[in-house]
Specification:
Largest sheet of chain B: 4 strands, parallel
Shape of chain B: globular
Oligomer: heterodimer
CATH topology of chain B: Rossmann fold
Number of domains of chain A: 1
Pfam family, one (chain B): PTS_IIB
CATH class of chain B: Alpha Beta
CATH architecture of chain A: 3-Layer(aba) Sandwich
Radius of gyration of chain A: 14 Å
Radius of gyration of chain B: 12 Å
Number of strands of chain B: 4
CATH superfamily of chain B: Response regulator
Strand content of chain A: 15-25%
CATH architecture of chain B: 3-Layer(aba) Sandwich
Protein name (chain B): PTS sugar transporter subunit IIB
Order of helices and strands of chain A: EHHEEEEHHH
Strand order of the largest sheet of chain A: 1-4-5-3-2
Number of helices of chain B: 3
Number of helices of chain A: 5
Structural class of chain B: alpha/beta
GO biological process, one term (chain B): phosphoenolpyruvate-dependent sugar phosphotransferase system
CATH class of chain A: Alpha Beta
Keywords (chain B): Sugar transport, Transferase, Transport
Largest sheet of chain A: 5 strands, mixed
Structural class of chain A: alpha/beta
CATH topology of chain A: Mannitol-specific EII, Chain A
Strand content of chain B: 15-25%
Organism (chain B): Bellilinea caldifistulae
Strand order of the largest sheet of chain B: 2-1-3-4
Helix content of chain B: 25-40%
């Protein structure tokens, strides 16, 4: 269940940023503070977007930021950041982004269950909207069950 | 009836493509179809054995010289989009 991976410490709502880098950094900082990754992982997440383009903006307004295990991931982690105004990542189809979900995993498969729970939850547009417009951490936690 | 190898591709092969794989798996299941779905990253994708590709616009260029069907999906969470763009291709591969 998605609630297994989200706790108040990894959720930050209505954050004010002015660039996609700041948005990704905000998500990465939550993972770092929760002890899930090293500082290098945050830089790697930003580099990933720079090098490979905005493919991680995988649905309208939603970016899934991440890097590789070897970039500094320590544990399986997930963070949720919603933005108070959209920023562009360079995705033709899905900009502007108002929600950044960041994750890390120490290998290539430990996060599969987590992504499965995430995908199942997000496959409903209603749920996506719920997260994007949530006013409090409690709202998010009760939405993800 | 064949079981085609359906490859999902993203930058690292373990994030976005995995989400897309889950969406595609959902569409396959709901339509009673069977295929082997797997993920690949930008560097290993072209070396894999596959029958068709699902990927994003940004990654589609990797496959411009391949004769295999490449389906570009804009919303990796949309079963509807996968259904509309991918199901006809999948059916054709399975029924071949």
């Amino acid at each position: 269940m998605l609630s297994n991976y989200l706790s108040p410490e990894v959720i930050q709502l209505k954050v004010n940023v002015n660039s996609w880098q700041e948005a990704v950094r905000a998500g990465g900082e939550l993972l770092l503070k929760a002890g899930k990754c090293q500082p290098s992982y945050i830089e790697a997440m930003i580099r990933a977007v720079q090098e490979m383009g905005a493919y991680m903006v995988l649905a309208p307004g939603l970016a899934l930021a991440h890097a590789r295990p070897e970039d500094g991931a320590s544990l399986v982690g997930l963070s949720l950041v919603t933005l108070d105004h959209g920023v562009n990542f360079g995705s033709e189809a899905n900009d502007p982004v108002t929600m950044v979900i960041s994750f890390c995993a120490p290998d290539h498969h430990s996060h599969i269950e987590m992504l499965q729970a995430l995908a199942e939850f997000l496959m409903s547009e209603e749920n996506q909207q719920l997260l994007k417009t949530a006013q409090s951490v409690e709202e998010v936690l009760s939405a993800v069950g | 009836m064949k079981k085609p190898r359906v490859m999902m591709v993203c930058g690292f092969g373990l994030g976005s493509s995995m989400i897309l794989k889950l969406t595609v798996d959902g569409v396959l299941k709901e339509n009673g179809l069977s295929a082997e779905t797997f993920c690949a990253d930008a560097t290993t994708a072209t070396g894999e054995a596959y029958d068709m590709v699902f990927t994003s616009k940004e990654m589609a260029n990797l496959f411009k010289n391949t004769p295999k069907p490449v389906v570009v999906i804009e919303n990796f969470l949309s079963k509807q989009e996968v259904l509309e763009k991918g199901l006809p291709v999948l059916r054709k591969l399975i029924e071949e």
